[in-house]
Amino acid sequence: MNERRYRLNGQTCADAGPPERRLLDILREDHALTAAKPGCGIGRCGACTVLVDGLPVNACLVMAYRLDGREIVTAEVASGWPEMAIVRAALIAENAFQCGYCAPGITFALAALLRRAPESDDGAIRAALVGHLCRCTGYTAILRAAARVFAGP
Ligand code: FES
Ligand code: FES
Known about the structure:
2 domains; single chain; binds FE2/S2 (inorganic) cluster; 5 strands; 6 helices; about 150 residues; DNA polymerase, domain 1
């Protein structure tokens, strides 16, 4: 069986398990990284968001055979980014969540956008949130928080 080598939160890792195993399971079961949540499991909710080569991706859709040479960052590391603190503060100020299940994915997606493209407009913000399902809030407060983030200090 071929071994895949990849970087995870700055560390070199190797995976020789089944090629069809999901990155989401590898993170949670092999590395005890549980910030990416198992929600729908079919790429529809965004609860399992991680960065792969700098872009947000659903970890439930990434199979092990695609990991070779990739750079993966999880919310455990991103939680220390200044952008994460800015996004969190805005979401709290807007009281943007109820149950909070969608919160890790939405927070991570917005922080990644702020880091990558701090001048993003409303269209880019909405595009970054496509695929993030919130069953509780109706999105209005989340979008208000996002607008607050990208409006700057
Ligand atoms: S669990 Fe991956 S998108 Fe829902
Ligand atoms: S606050 Fe419950 S799913 Fe978003």
